[in-house]
Design brief:
The protein is α/β, with parallel strands linked by helices. The protein is 39% helix and 26% strand. The chain is built from six helices and 13 strands. Strands 1-2-4-3 form a four-stranded mixed sheet, covered by helices on one side. A four-stranded mixed sheet has the order 6-7-9-8, covered by helices on one side. Strands 10-12-11 form a three-stranded mixed sheet, covered by helices on one side. Strand 11 and strand 12 form a beta hairpin.
């Protein structure tokens, strides 16, 4: 970990990277530069310094974190729900029109709600991925729902598709795009024109969905369990 004008800076070398990329990791409160193998850290630090104003804006806009705690609002499939705690009804978690009610003790409240959201994500994503893969003659090994705070999804060389549980908070159209993105990687482990052609075969308006994730996704990544 390095430092840029009191801004924590992390370097990541990626064998398939063709150019440097910069992002702000709100969960770690640091900037991350992904660079090709031939690039040096000095070059990466200079690259980041050219975008320090943008980084400051990103840090400022993501400074307020939201927790899976009573009194907060969280979206589920794009629809906002108010988190409510009830001491009775141990084991109860239910959604009403405007609330998500979690029963039981306050201890472990956030983890119970996170596990519930993970189950919702699994239930939503797995059949969607299955249907998309079958529609283009592909298959995958399994689906994993994980607590990733910087990536919405990934596809391993062994055919495992992994997704952040926070994806269940996105509107359905965005969920479909992210699933299509990772399913497409089963066929094309890159971001070539051939890859984007597969994505476009599975969903419409992929560019619009990518823009949505860039503008709105960071706030969802800031939703944390305590």
């Amino acid at each position: 970990m390095s430092n840029l004008n009191n801004f924590p800076l992390e370097f990541k070398t990626h064998n398939r990277a063709k150019r440097m990329k910069l992002r702000y990791d709100a969960a770690k409160c640091c900037a991350v530069v992904t660079m090709p193998p031939e690039s040096t850290r000095r070059e990466a630090q200079h690259f980041a310094s050219l975008h320090i104003s943008w980084l400051e804006k990103q840090r400022k806009s993501s400074s307020e974190r939201i927790f899976l705690s009573p009194g907060y609002h969280i979206p589920i499939e794009g629809i906002p729900y108010f988190i409510v705690h009830k001491n009775d009804n141990i084991g109860l978690i239910k959604q009403t029109d405007f609330e998500i009610v979690v029963g039981g003790d306050k201890i472990g409240f956030s983890k119970r709600l996170e596990n519930y959201l993970k189950k919702l994500a699994q239930k939503k994503i797995e059949p969607l991925a299955q249907q998309m893969a079958e529609s283009i003659g592909l298959s995958f090994r399994r689906i994993q729902i994980r607590d990733t705070k910087s990536r919405w999804g990934s596809c391993s060389s062994s055919g495992t598709l992994s997704f952040s549980w926070r994806l269940i908070m996105c509107p359905n159209k965005i969920i479909e795009y992210v699933v299509a993105h990772e399913v497409s990687h089963i066929k094309e482990m890159n971001h070539s024109p051939a890859f984007w052609s597969v994505v476009d075969e599975l969903v419409n308006d992929a560019k619009i969905s990518r823009k949505w994730l860039k503008s709105e996704g960071q706030a969802l990544m800031m939703i944390l369990s305590e």
